[in-house]
Amino acid sequence: AQKITQTQPGMFVQEKEAVTLDCTYDTSDPSYGLFWYKQPSSGEMIFLIYQGSYDQQNATEGRYSLNFQKARKSANLVISASQLGDSAMYFCAMARFKTIFGAGTRLFVKA
Amino acid sequence: DGGITQSPKYLFRKEGQNVTLSCEQNLNHDAMYWYRQDPGQGLRLIYYSQIVNDFQKGDIAEGYSVSREKKESFPLTVTSAQKNPTAFYLCASSREQAGNQPQHFGDGTRLSIL
Fold it and tell me: By the CB < 8 Å criterion, does A30 face chain B?
């Protein structure tokens, strides 16, 4: 069975510093996609970054990068130079034909 | 601008009542999804549809029903059989149902019991 685990319920980071949000997954499929979404307090889900299971290089999108370690089945999100607007819930997700989501990590950025 | 529109933003249901949540997309996406989110938790899949006139149950379909008569529309009905409907409901779409397609989400509907 597929499973996504986010072990950090909450994280604090100082503004302008980098932060890593952890995500581990479990699947027996060789082909899958890994995603990170941001959910501000207003509720909408915003797609941040995607990593394919066969991609050799880690994905990057602006200040977001995905640290993909396939052998360890981890897909951690790194946010560089944190901003106050980064305070939100962050969800890791894995997709084959259906998408499953982790429980999320709430990030607080301190001024 | 293309996107997904969910309505209403807030909805209240009386005991024994069915209510319908609207979801419309103008992204020309084939796949659409309904998720339920309870406080402090992740998203759980209720129903999904890969193409018009076809849909499948997700992980928590009991007490819910859907239709997909048009590509743009995927309404969700919360029936009286759903005994604990209070939650945040999110509709999403993707170009196709594949592992490399990100999902685009609406702003959600908050459903409460009166």
Answer: no
